[in-house]
Design goal:
The protein has about 80 residues and is an all-alpha fold. It has a domain of about 45 residues. Helix 2 runs antiparallel to helix 6.
């Protein structure tokens, strides 16, 4: 797998913020559907969770991207 494949799988903090602001689907964007459903059921933690996510989105996106890079590297090493 090449760098282009990695870049196509990585997520953007900017898009995550747009998902958070307009639809509240930033967890779905990062593939965390369990968290997304919980977020919806609690109405974003009654606003508290939504406010906290305002500051945590960049680290959540970075963690997601790191995980993807590690998976790609691991699959490269297996071949």
């Amino acid at each position: 797998m090449n760098e282009y494949y990695l870049m196509s799988k990585m997520k953007s903090s900017g898009i995550a913020y747009l998902c958070w602001f307009f639809l509240g689907v930033h967890y779905a964007y990062l593939g965390k559907w369990g968290w997304q459903i919980l977020y919806w059921l609690t109405l974003g933690g009654f606003g508290i969770w939504a406010f906290i996510d305002l500051f945590l989105i960049p680290s959540k996106v970075n963690n997601y991207n790191l995980k993807i890079a590690q998976q790609i590297e691991a699959s490269k090493n297996q071949n």
